[in-house]
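User: Hey, my collaborator sent me this sequence without any context and asked if I could get a structure. I don't really work with proteins. Can you help?
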Amino acid sequence: TSERAAAVGDTNGHILACYSHSLEDTSRNYVTYPTYAGSTIKSLSVYGPAVEDDVVCWSDLYLDSPYHRSINADGEEGVWPVNMSSYTDSMWTVQEALKKSNNAIAVKVLKDYGVGNSCRFLRESFGLKTEAEERVVREGEEDDVLSNLALGYLEAGITMRDLLGAYQTFANGGVYTPMHAVTAIQTGNGEEYYKEDSETTRVFSAETAYVMNRMLKTVVEEGGTGEAAFI
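Assistant: No problem. I've predicted the 3D structure and written it out in structure-token form, which is a compact way to encode the shape of the chain:
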């Protein structure tokens, strides 16, 4: 793609390094520019909160099949959502679904957890803008925003900085610290003019963070969608 961004942080909310590149707009910083998250949002909007609230566990089984089927005017069947590979119509564990980025099962788990619950979790835990999706849910049309929450197409988007901060919680035992790049500013004579004092928030239990870490590790193992990133 013509746009790329990356960011590295620690478990204390510090942005240690970031990179942004665009062939179309060299002035735009894609670390702080809202865009779509894609499948990276599944751990934050679906699996993490669903495990936390005991809606699912890693070994629960879901059918690998479309959430919705339709027939168009030509009599051709359409399915939604589309997976990276063909449907198997077999039972998968939640862990397998995350490992292979199964879109249909992510949608089904989200439906069981509740789209409104997911919106509130993202907004209250990480400060993400989910007002547009919550308005649709209140109107009784939550299926219209399943892809927003389960597949990473939030109307307001999400930044690389947002993702870095949210994923930090898994490495930090479930504790979230707002991401920041400046820790302190001193005057010329050494007096402290500014000191970062971010408040931490527990958004996942230590047990949920442990389970999610175990699940996420399988993504870069053999057969996972991130196999090429294994170190």
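In plain terms: The radius of gyration is 19 Å. You can pass these tokens on to your collaborator as they are.
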